[in-house]
Design goal:
InterPro entries: HPr, HPr-like, HPr-like_sf. This is HPr family phosphocarrier protein. The protein is an alpha+beta fold and 86 residues long. The chain has one domain: HPr-like (Histidine-containing Protein, Chain: A, 2-Layer Sandwich). It is built from three helices and six strands, in the order ββαββαββα. The strands form two sheets. Strands 1-6-3-4 form a four-stranded antiparallel β-sheet, with helices on one face. The protein has a two-stranded antiparallel sheet with strand order 2-5. The radius of gyration is 11 Å and the shape is globular.
Length: 86
């Protein structure tokens, strides 16, 4: 299991289109992927779960990944969250 705390850099945050893109990226991996914010943990492969966190730009979250492709999944998702990829 790997995890990393990250600040959301995508504008306007993980809402609507960016949230859908994030969930699509997460679903490319077999690992279990979770996002944690303020003691609430959601399945990052669920658009409804992700939207329930109301993550805006500048929010701090923890990404937790567990599975065979965890390292690649974490690197890809952190890069997206920080606004370094589309």
């Amino acid at each position: 299991m790997v995890e990393q705390t990250v600040i959301i850099g995508v504008d306007p945050g993980l809402q609507a289109r960016p949230a859908a893109q994030f969930v699509q990226k997460a679903n490319h991996y077999t690992a279990e992927i979770f996002i944690e914010k303020d003691q609430k943990r959601i399945n990052a492969k669920s658009i409804m779960g992700l939207m329930s966190l109301a993550l805006s730009k500048g929010s701090e979250i923890k990404i937790i990944v567990d599975g065979t492709d965890e390292e690649q999944a974490l690197a890809d998702l952190v890069s997206f969250i920080e606004g370094n990829s589309e």
